[in-house]
Amino acid sequence: MDLHGLDDDERVIAETAAAFAEKRLAPHALEWDATKHFPTDVLREAAELGMAAIYCNDDVGGSGLRRLDGVRIFEALSYADPTVAAFLSIHNMCTWMVDTHGTAEQRKSLVPRLASMELIASYCLTEPGAGSDAGALRTRAVRDGDSYVLDGVKQFISGAGASDVYVVMARTGGDGPRGISAFVVEKDTPGLSFGADEYKMGWNAQPTAQVVFEGARVPADAMLGGSDGEGAGFGIAMNGLNGGRINIAACSLGGAQAAYDKAAAYVRDRVAFGGSLLDEPTIRFALADMATALEASRSLLWRAASALDDGHPDKVTLCAMAKRYVTDSCFTVADQALQLHGGYGYLNEYGVEKIVRDLRVHRILEGTNEIMRVVIGRSEAARIRAT
Ligand SMILES: Cc1cc2nc3c(=O)[nH]c(=O)nc-3n(C[C@H](O)[C@H](O)[C@H](O)COP(=O)(O)OP(=O)(O)OC[C@H]3O[C@@H](n4cnc5c(N)ncnc54)[C@H](O)[C@@H]3O)c2cc1C
C-alpha cells in the first residue's frame, strides 16, 4: 500500500496492521488453508491491537477509528491472508451493530468483550430459502413472557460453531423487511446447534456452517436495541453491510496486491526466450492493466469509506460500487497473476492459487455483485428521473 500523503496517525495504523500481518498471518496462511485451522488465538492478538472494534466508540473499548482506517487495515491484513482478514471484517461488522444499535446496557456488557474477542461474533442473515432476497427470511422469534423463542435455519454462517455470539435476524412480525428484528444469541443457548463444517473452494481458515434454532429461548433483552429494536432488524443488518461491503472489498484488494507482487517478482526472475519475462511487451501490458486495476480499486474504496465516514447522501451506492468493482477487478488481477506464473501458479506452494480461491467468494457474499448492480441501478434510475 502506498502510504504517501497519509498523516502520521494514518501511517502508524496501516503500518501496525501490515507488520502484524507479516509476522503473525503470512507465515501460516498456507498451512491454515490446508488444515482448515481457524486461528482464534491469532485473531485475539489482532484484537489486542484494536482491530476487532475498529470503528466502534472508545467509551466501550472500541478503537474510535474511521472506516477509511478500517479499509487500510483490512487491505494490510489480507495481503497476508484474505480469509483471516475477512473473518475479522465480519466480527467488526457485528461489533459495530451492537455498538451503534444496542441499548446502553448491551453496549456496556457486550462491546468491550467483543473488542477483546473474548467473545467472537458471527452474522446470521442468510437462510436456505432466502439469500439475496434476505427480506423474505423465515426464522421466527416468538415472544413468550420475558423471552423470545427462535426457530429456523441460517445458512453459510461464517464462524458457525466457533463463535461465542450470533447476531441473528429473525421474524418477530409480519412478512417483509419490517417484520424482522435482530437478536444477540449466546452459543450455549439450549436449542441452538450447528451443521457440519462446509467443504469449500476457499476461505478454509474459517468455518462455514448452518446455525439451527429449535425452540431456542433467549431473554427478551437479547433483542438488539431493546423494545425499540422491534422491526428494526433488517435496517440494522443492511447498515452493517455497508461497512461489511467495503471491508470485504479491501480484503480483495490486499489479496490481489499480494498476488500482483508475487507475479511481478516471478516475471522479473523468470528467463525465457533468452531474457527476463519482464522484457516482453505483452507481459508489461498485463502488468500495466493489473497495476491500473489495483490503483483504481484503492481509489474507489477510499472514496466509499470516506463517504461512509462523512455520512455522504450516496454512501450506500458508493459502498455498493466499491464492493462490485473492487471484488470483480481484484479477482481478475489475482487470476492474471496466477497466469503469469505459468504452471507454477497452479501449485499451492507459490501461494497464488490460494488467493484466487479465497477472493472468488467475495463476489458472492455480503450481497452478490448482481445485487450490487441492483442497488446501484436503483439509485441511478432515481437520480436520472429527477433530472
Ligand atoms: C463462504 C460463504 C460465507 C458466507 N458467510 C455468511 C455469513 O457469515 N452470514 C450470512 O448471513 N451469510 C453468509 N453467506 C451467504 C451469502 O451472503 C449468500 O450466499 C449470498 O447473499 C447469495 O445468496 P444465495 O447463495 O442464496 O444466492 P441466491 O440469492 O439464490 O442467488 C443466486 C444467483 O442469482 C442472482 N440473483 C438473485 N437475485 C437477483 C436479482 N434480483 N437480480 C439479478 N440477479 C439475482 C445472484 O446474484 C446469484 O448469482 C456466506 C456465503 C458463503 C459462500
Automatic annotation (TrEMBL):
Occurrences of domain Acyl-CoA dehydrogenase/oxidase C-terminal (ranges): 231-379
Gene Ontology MF, one: flavin adenine dinucleotide binding
PROSITE patterns cross-referenced by the UniProt entry: ACYL_COA_DH_1 (PS00072), ACYL_COA_DH_2 (PS00073)
Pathway, per record: Amino-acid degradation; L-valine degradation
One GO BP: branched-chain amino acid catabolic process
Acyl-CoA dehydrogenase/oxidase N-terminal domain mapped to chain residues: 8-118
The Acyl-CoA oxidase/dehydrogenase middle domain, residue ranges: 123-214
Highest taxon, organism lineage: Bacteria
Pfam families linked to this entry: Acyl-CoA_dh_1 (PF00441), Acyl-CoA_dh_M (PF02770), Acyl-CoA_dh_N (PF02771)
SUPFAM superfamilies reported in the protein's UniProt record: Acyl-CoA dehydrogenase C-terminal domain-like, Acyl-CoA dehydrogenase NM domain-like
Keywords on record: Branched-chain amino acid catabolism, FAD, Flavoprotein, Oxidoreductase
Keyword field contains Flavoprotein: yes
InterPro entries reported for this sequence: Acyl-CoA_DH_CS (IPR006089), Acyl-CoA_Oxase/DH_mid-dom (IPR006091), Acyl-CoA_Oxase/DH_mid-dom_sf (IPR046373), AcylCo_DH-like_C (IPR036250), AcylCo_DH/oxidase_C (IPR009075), AcylCoA_DH/ox_N (IPR013786), AcylCoA_DH/ox_N_sf (IPR037069), AcylCoA_DH/oxidase_NM_dom_sf (IPR009100)
UniProt cofactor(s): FAD
Protein family (similarity comment): Belongs to the acyl-CoA dehydrogenase family.
Name recorded for this polypeptide: Acyl-CoA dehydrogenase
Organism: Mycolicibacterium arabiense
